[in-house]
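subagent[fold] <- orchestrator: predict structure for attached chain, return tokens only, no commentary.
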Amino acid sequence: MIEKHILFKLKIIIILLTEKNSFCNATETFPMTTIDMKTVVNSLVSGDAFNVNNLLNLSEKYSKDAEINDIDSDIYVYGKYLNTSELIVKRGYTAEEYKVTTEDGYILLLTRIITGKSGPHRPVLFLHGLLSASDQWLLPGCNESLAFILADNGYDVWLGDQRGNVNSQAHNKYDVDSKKFWDFSFHEFGVYDLPAFIEKILAITEASQLSYIGHSLGACEFLIMGSERPEYLEKVKVSILLAPFFNPPRISQSLILNTINLFSPIIMNPLVRATKYSIFPRTKALQTAIQRFCSPEVAIDICLTIVGDVVGDNRKNLDRKLVPFYLSSVPAGGSLKTTEHMVQSFKSGKTRHFSYNLVENLRRYGQITPPNYNIKNIKTPIALVYGNNDGFLKTKSIQRYAKELKNVVMNYWVEDPFFNHFDGIFGKNAAELVHKKLLKLLNNYN
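subagent[fold] -> orchestrator:
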């Protein structure tokens, strides 16, 4: 089995290094006929892919002569960015911001949507995935966003921002530029951040329990909390895990992810040089470059092809006018250690504690390999929602670990065969295929 696994990886790399994939036809606004996957791989290995200036230069070069028209909205304007609270206010609601301090000293942002409507206002917490931020839940608009839909249906919606992203870069002891500040992986998300959010919300609302919705790594951290901090499970009525990252497949559907997986020791060196301890920070320049470069008038199909390889290509399910804003919201910052932890999960096919070296693993864990997270004793009602076209995950992997969970009340494989990793948030059909079911589920538990 190991030999077949290695041979399959080698076959993938040969394809990557030899095949040329036409990303789009030549156009007047984007005079680029083909991009080959060898270029993508070389960019990853050399570190050029992590250089924001490269994207800025491309953006300037190819959007110079293009007419990029602002869409008809005061919210979405190219080159303009609204944070979570501003998006809430622009949509006609009121926003409240709270600072949450974790047990290990990180200061996180927690944002609340206030509708002004009467009702029981049952609390529900949303948490984003890797390199994302809380604003991702709001970008599709009032009728398509699960957060707004729940707010309009009597729920007290709270949006959290994990340590290290653009909204949560503070500590009561460490400076954000120090190595110690960035010494965390997604282990700390589940052990410290999620419990801190839960405590804060229950203290303010005086409720005894809340509901939870996590996307991707946000789903993973709930399972980590259930393994490492089981006392907090009693504070959660029901947990909805969208595109849940946990025990991922060693071979994914993504050629780019498989390349990163195989060449991670080589890629990590230029990544460290380019980013130090943090990775893909959100900046005004980067967001503007992505919005301009990935606009419908410039190179949207190139962007969708590259991103689609990683998350699953379902471009027909996206509002093309909003794609530049979706893509520019994802680089929200995080730690290099978190990314390394995810690579370790792909390599082993298991979600375990962070692996250091043999000596450090023995010191920390009493064994040379890091221990697995034990999810068998999680009795909280759990809903799993995922698609068949997810570049990160595989249906079989999710169904395999779902059998370990004690109380799966919904195991929903979305009917759309092209439903991908982000369609539960940005997909045009998410409101009909997913959000209605989740609202009904939440109502049953509230």
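orchestrator: received. Logging for downstream: The two ends are 47 Å apart (CA to CA). Residues 2-76+254-329 form one domain.
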